[in-house]
Specification:
Length: 185
């Protein structure tokens, strides 16, 4: 049991760091952020080396779909799938292939939602204490496509912006639904 808990912890860290980096890379490329080392964008200095080992070989096999870098998404998915396979091996029973594939999709969606929660909280805190910083600007640019529809629907409350709170509630609802779907499977 202890070995399973340790393996789960290490795999969660790997998924969060590597899978999250692949997803972030895909999303930033979708938003047309320049991530090249010479762009002056500091996140590219960390993101590219962290993901290139996985994404670059996959790019040879799977093309991008429009502005979506399919290799990044597939890389994150494969990391999640590897975790579920590893845990299945440690438990002594690998789930049926369909359950494994669907479980990986659900876990990947859960990872996306968790990353969004961190970004929203970081953006709110930085808007209070680090307004105008490059990090706060980047987080705002990442979150604006998600917050803009909420801002259009909500009435103006002056300087008080509740759209991050509403997005957090929507994410929590999605996490509850996801958790229940995973439990059924």
């Amino acid at each position: 049991m202890m070995l399973l808990e340790i393996a789960n912890l290490i795999s969660e860290i790997a998924i969060t760091v590597i899978g999250g980096a692949c997803l972030l890379r895909c999303y930033l490329q979708y938003l047309k952020f320049n991530l090249s080392p010479h762009s002056g964008n500091p996140i590219g200095l960390y993101l590219m080396p962290l993901t290139n080992w996985l994404v670059m070989p996959l790019r040879k096999v799977i093309p991008s779909v429009g502005r979506i870098d399919s290799a990044c998404v597939l890389g994150a998915y494969l990391i999640v799938l590897a975790k579920l396979l590893l845990l299945g091996l440690l438990l002594g029973s690998i789930p049926p292939i369909l359950s494994l594939l669907i479980g990986s999709v659900l876990e990947l969606i859960g990872l996306i939602l968790s990353i969004l929660v961190v970004f929203i909280i970081a953006n709110v805190v930085l808007s209070w204490v680090g307004r105008g910083s490059p990090t706060q600007y980047m987080l705002a640019e990442i979150l604006n496509p998600l917050l803009a529809p909420i801002k259009r629907i909500m009435p103006s409350l002056g300087p008080l912006d509740l759209s991050p709170l509403i997005l957090l509630v929507l994410i929590q609802i999605a996490q509850i639904v996801l958790s229940n779907i995973a439990r059924i499977l």
